[in-house]
Design brief:
Order of helices and strands of chain B: HHEHEEEEEEHHH
Shape of chain A: globular
Helix content of chain A: 25-40%
Distance between the termini of chain B: 51 Å
Largest interface: A-B, 35 and 28 residues
Largest sheet of chain B: 7 strands, antiparallel
Protein name (chain A): Alcohol dehydrogenase
Oligomer: heterodimer
Protein name (chain B): Cyclase
CATH architecture of the largest domain in chain B: 2-Layer Sandwich
CATH topology of the largest domain in chain A: Quinone Oxidoreductase, Chain A, domain 1
Structural class of chain B: alpha+beta
Mean pLDDT of chain A: 93
Low-confidence stretches of chain A: none
Distance between the termini of chain A: 18 Å
CATH class of the largest domain in chain B: Alpha Beta
Family (chain A): Belongs to the zinc-containing alcohol dehydrogenase family.
Helix content of chain B: 25-40%
Number of helices of chain B: 6
Number of strands of chain A: 17
Structural class of chain A: alpha/beta
Pfam family, one (chain A): ADH_zinc_N
Low-confidence stretches of chain B: 1-36
CATH superfamily of the largest domain in chain A: Medium-chain alcohol dehydrogenases, catalytic domain
Order of helices and strands of chain A: EEEHEEEHHEEEHHEHEHEHEHHEHEHEHE
Radius of gyration of chain B: 17 Å
CATH architecture of the largest domain in chain A: Alpha-Beta Complex
Keywords (chain A): Metal-binding, Oxidoreductase, Zinc
Amino acid sequence: MRALTWHGSKDVRVETVDDPEIVNPRDAIIKVTSTAICGSDLHLYDGVIPGVKSGDVLGHEFMGEVVETGAGSSLRKGQRVVVPFTISCGGCFHCAIEQYSCCENSNPAEKQDMSATLYGHPMAGLFGYSHLTGGYSGGQAEYVRVPYSDVGPIGVPDHLDDEKVLFLSDILPTGWMGAENADIGPDDTVAVWGCGPVGLFAVQSAIVMGAAKVIAIDHYPHRLELARKMGAEIINFRETNVREALMEMSGGIGVDAVIDAVGMEAHGFAVDNMLDVVKQKVGVGADRASALKQALLAVRSGGRVSIPGVYGGMTDKFPLGALMEKGLQVRTGQTHVQKYTKPLLEKIEDGTLDTTFLISHRLPLEDAANGYRNFKEQQDTWTKVVLKPGMEH
Amino acid sequence: MSNSTRNRLEATAGIAVALGAAAIGAVAAKLQEGRSSDDAPGRTARRSFGKHAVTGRTVTIRKPRAELFAFWRDFTNLPAIMENVEKIAIKDAAKGLAVWTIKAPAGRTVEVETTIVREDEGQLIAWRSVEGSQIETEGRVTFENAPGNRGTRVTLIIAYKPPAGDLGRAAAKLFLREPAVQARHDLKRFKAFMETGEITTSARRREGTRAAKQMEAA
């Protein structure tokens, strides 16, 4: 089959690799019809996530048709499914309490050591996201082996196009959980850092959840415009002092909740961020956390901090004092996708949520490398790239 | 009996079973002198037990105690979850004798015969290599109810003594390399198998699985 493989920083290629096959009874093989490049794939592309090996197949947002099933799969051939990026066994303690992204079994035993050393506990298995998360072949390919296929994939009705449901795989539930973690009430002012796909979906979710005001922060005019269209007020951090603006826009109180949808490669002009850029470049592993640092200072005392943005390591000069002295509550984590797919599919069907506005480019899988480059370099206008195996050039 | 006293005795008993008669005296003495300040299991202490390498690990498995015990009691099930164990054959079920075929370097294998030294139905199984084995190893697995409906706490303790002879040493290097890592992986695979019915693998094809690679090398 053809698949997008990683070979180093800024080096991804579409190559021919072995087709997947049923390995375990609960597996299914999915023939991919649509797959997207995620903002978090850019962290892999930039080489700042450890544990990626040459030849690894990337991609964790995908959907398609079931073409083969193991004896223990509940799927049937020909079924259209969206596959969560988190692999969850359904049988462990964490799956039982719907903390699916903390699944204890989906990362193979012999692969758990690296993340256990880094974080104290191993990560769950994720598709196409380094050997820290199991080393699973990802979805930017013609076919994917999906383990525990009776737990993850959700069947979707034929009248909903791929583009309406594809983002159930990651970014829509991630934006939704980001807003849910901010514990939004009807009088709240909520600020969202980053108007990438997750940030935009967090904005949309916060509005659906009834926030009085949502403020979106970014520096790309087109992305800010998308946030404004959804009903958010916007701040361009290149033109405006963000903290001062947030204080004024929240009546001098500070925003009630903040959502960091930026993560470890934040842009920003603060001195410590510039220093972090250098450290990341020379490989001494500092997460650039300038958005989060700003959010911690901007949120009101006793407010909530939600972090859907991805971090992988350590960071310097973290405003720990603000966290404690202001009595903040922090909630974060990889998304418990399986918990959200069903209710969010209902919200797509009844028209409460629309995700198609986000897609700026549709490319054949063969052009995936091109897609990565542009998604990275032209972030203002390349808001979301959907790859389609078999699509004509 | 206070909790801490019970835990201390439990830790001491555990190591004693794991190490066998020869080492009990020395290890027990060390445990006594070093174990007065906290309630942690002895195997987590920051010191060693003489010539014996001892490691232990606990996992919680969301399955009933009896089911887990039954799986472990049939030693022929264990190669599926154990690193570098190719096969375990039952030599004499009544006497609890089993022969383990363990992968050694250069495509060779080494055999270790073990005997069950203690078995408490649903609670504990302890085994030990018989006299004259190339690898002197002992193991003990315990099963206890976890709080609420969390299932069963399974603790595996492995002890071994670096063996004599070139082949034995080479095999031990593989079989018993970093026993802590081995015990951890073995227990994690046990957990995955019992909770999901499968040994988790990220291999894209069957030939890429751990089991397939084991067969290939055999």
